[in-house]
Specification:
73% helix; single chain; mainly alpha
Length: 393
């Protein structure tokens, strides 16, 4: 009975999913640099599915495009709920993460360009633009009540906008070909989902089936399929009632445990299998390494907070409720965790150049680790200081 209670407490603790995610990162790095590394990579490269509907993909693709679409669905549901009835329900609060995300994409790209324009590495300008939503949210969740809920929502919304921006950049600059027929079919699926919402269909099955088709068409269009999760989320019905639980809230509750304790750990295991090689450390002290590390670490914190400060001073936006500028700096640091999307862009930027790809992966890992540790430490210190001040009053 005691073990059961501890297990339930673990599952419902906001810190638990973050701890599990970091543990999976360490396990994946250990496996990748052990005798099991080749076998693990072969497992990720194993094709699963059927050729009948062109759905035969490596396991890694099913994880990054399939399972992560469910993660984006959950985050999309949370964002929509906050827009309708929560922290993002006013224009001032809802506009801030959009503005911050734009700043957090422009400044890192400019920093990278400053170091690498006119070189063989120039094509990687978009590498430091991305925020890894899974890891950044996992780390901020580990801080529990030391961070105001509004700041967590701000970071989630910012990361969503950031990822959508990265997906658009990939589609425009790094995609060999867009399939407009599949994009058209995706648009039809979105229209069907909107109509289902308009006619007040409440059962989840009516949305999940078109949502699966939306994922399929989006995946074949050439655009990253995880955007299907966000589009589906924004069509699930909700309400402003505090007494009646909406279909959106019901689905959100059902997804929390599998996403936090199954999908995200699998994602971490599959995407952190970076094999350390000779020369990687030297690669950090080159213009290429500086562009990635400075872009993610300094670019994110400067871009997010500079753009936020300008629009707050213009009274267009407002700070997240009960948050301070020092906490915004912490959120900006956590946004510097580029990781998966940054690695994905690096692979697209330098196709066929394995050595450059490995250098980029290592620089992204280092920058993400520095940003994550710095952001966590700063927010923890601020939260602890605030707690001590409140207890002394």
């Amino acid at each position: 009975m005691l073990i059961t209670n501890y297990f339930k407490k673990f599952l419902h603790s906001s810190q638990s999913s973050g701890i599990l995610l970091i543990l999976c990162v360490l396990i994946s790095l250990f496996i990748a640099n052990s005798s099991l590394g080749i076998s693990f990579q072969n497992l990720l490269d194993t094709e699963i599915g059927t050729n009948l509907f062109h759905l035969n993909y490596p396991l890694s693709i099913w994880i990054n495009d399939g399972l992560m679409a469910i993660f984006f669905l959950l985050v999309g549901l949370e964002i929509k709920r906050e827009i309708v009835e929560g922290e993002l329900s006013s224009f001032k609060s809802a506009s801030l993460p959009i503005i911050a995300a734009i700043g957090g994409m422009i400044v890192p790209a400019l920093i990278y360009y400053f170091f690498n324009h006119g070189t063989d590495y120039a094509n990687g300008w978009a590498i430091p633009m991305a925020t890894d939503i899974a890891f950044s949210l996992a780390i901020i969740s580990m801080l529990g009540k030391r961070v105001p809920l509004s700041l967590k929502i701000f970071l989630a919304a910012l990361a969503i906008v950031d990822d959508l921006g990265a997906i658009m950049v990939i589609a425009i600059f790094y995609t060999d070909q867009l399939h407009w027929d599949y994009l058209g079919l995706s648009a039809i699926m979105v229209l069907i989902l909107i109509l289902l919402n308009f006619f007040k269909f409440k059962k989840h099955i009516f949305y999940i089936i078109p949502g699966l088709f939306l994922w399929y068409f989006m995946h074949h269009s050439g655009i990253h399929a995880t955007i299907a999760g966000v589009l589906l989320a924004f069509t699930i019905p909700t309400n402003v009632s505090k007494t009646e639980i909406s279909p959106l809230e019901k689905l959100e509750q059902k997804l929390h445990l599998p996403v936090n304790f199954l999908i995200m750990p699998i994602f971490a295991l599959a995407n952190t299998n970076i094999t350390f090689k000779g020369g990687m450390v030297d690669g950090l002290f080159t213009n290429f390494g500086y562009g990635i590390i400075f872009g993610l670490f300094f670019g994110k914190i400067i871009g997010i907070n500079l753009f936020s400060w300008i629009f707050i001073k213009l009274k267009i936006s407002s700070l997240p409720d009960k948050s301070s500028w020092s906490q915004m700096l912490g959120a900006g640091l956590l946004a510097g965790i580029g990781f998966t999307m940054s690695i994905f862009i690096a692979l697209l930027s330098f196709k066929g150049h394995v050595e450059i790809q490995d250098e980029a992966k290592f620089a992204i890992l280092v920058a993400s680790a520095i940003s994550g540790f710095s952001g966590f430490s700063l927010l923890k210190y601020i939260g602890k200081k605030k707690e001590n001040l409140e207890s002394s009053l």
